[in-house]
Amino acid sequence: MNNQAHRKTITFTLSVIVVLLAFYFLIIFKPHANKSLSVAVTVAAVKQQDVPVYLNALGTVMPENSINVTTQIDGILTQVYFQDGQRVKAGEVLAEVDPRIYQAQVLQYEGQLERDQALLENAKVDLKRYQNLYKNKDVSQQTLNTQQSLVIQYEGAVKMDEGQLQQARVNLGYCQIISPIDGQISIGLISAGNYVQASPSMSLGVITSLNPMEVLFSLPEDNFHQVSVPFNAGQILEVDVYNRDKSQLLATGKLVAINNGANITTGTVQYEALFANPSNILFPNQFVNVALKIKTISNAMTVPTEAIQQGEKNAYVYRVNQDQTVSMVVIKPGVNYKDITVIDSGLNIGDQIVTDGANQLIDGAKITITETAA
Prior knowledge:
The protein has helices spanning 2-29, 100-135, 141-173, 224-232; strands at residues 38-45, 47-63, 66-69, 75-80, 87-88, 93-97, 176-178, 183-185, 195-196, 205-208, 213-220, 238-242, 249-263, 268-275, 287-304, 309-310, 315-320, 326-337, 340-345, 352-356, 366-372. By secondary structure, it is an alpha+beta fold. It folds into three domains: 32-53 and 299-372, conserved putative lor/sdh protein from methanococcus maripaludis s2 fold (Beta Barrel); 58-63 and 213-298, Elongation Factor Tu (Ef-tu), domain 3 (Beta Barrel), CATH 2.40.30.170; 66-207, CATH 2.40.50.100. The longest helix has 36 residues, at 100-135. The protein starts with a helix and ends with a strand.
C-alpha cells in the first residue's frame, strides 16, 4: 500500500510539473503576451474609392426563344435535312413531307375555280341580255331576278374555290418544314419514313435561340424596392454572371424585367436579365452566379477585408501608430466588394492598418512592418 501511494504521489507531482512547464512556455513564446516583443506584420492604407453595390443570387440561363418543331399537315416524312444538335438559320428547310397529295389538291381546286369562273362569266352575259329584254317587256321580272340570283350564286362559288385553292397552296407549302428562328436544334426525335401528324406531341426537335440569352434569378422580397425604384425610373441596372465557382466572369448584361408579384412560398421576387451571347458561352439551363449592380457608393472609405477582426460584440482593426505600436480600433463595416470592405465609421483616410499578423497582436503591441499591401 505504501508503494502504491508513493507512486500516486510521484505521478501527481510530475503532472503538475508538466502543466506548469506548458504554461511557462505559453507565456514566454506567445508573441502577443509580451508587449516588449515585436511582431512582424503586413499593413495597408485606408483608401477612398468608388464602390459598386451588388445583390447576389443564383440564376438559370434561358433562351429568348424556344420553338417546338412540328408538322402542320399529315403525311409521310420523306426527308430530314438537319443533323442532331445542328445550328440552323431562320428560313432553312429542316424536313419535307410527301407533297403529292397536296399537289393534287391544288390542281383539283385550280380546275374547279376555272369551271366556276366560266359559269360566272356566262351567267353575267345572260343577265345583261335579260336586262335589255326586260326593258322591252320581252322577259318577266321573275326571269330577270332568277338570272341575277344565279350570278350571285356563281360569284359565291368562285370565292369558295379561291379559298379552297389558297388553303391547298398553304398546305402544299407546309410540306417543307422551315426553321422560324436562328438557333440550335436538339437531337432529332423522329426520322424520315415515319408518318407524321399535325400534333404538338409529335415533335421533330426543339430549336433554341443562342444569342441573346436570358437569365432568370430571384431575390428576397426585402430587396424589391432597392431594385424596382431605379429600374422603374429608367436607370440601366447592370448584371454580371459568373460560372459555378465564381472564378470566371461569363457575361455582362442588363435587367429587363421584374415579375408582377412575389412568390408566396419562397418570399422572393423573380427578375429577368438579357445578355448578348455572340461566343455562345451561355447555354440553355446553365446555372450561374448572378451579381446585380444596384448603385455605386462614391468616395467610400475602404480597407482590405482581411484586416477586419471580429470580436464578441464589435468588429475591429489594428491601426499602426507612429511609435511602431498598434491600437485596437472598433469600426462599423459596411458592404463588401471583392476583397475590400467599406468602413462606415472608426477610421480616417490614410490610416495604416494591419492586414496580416493581427492574430498575434493585442492593443499596444510593438510591430515590425515587413510589407505594405497594395
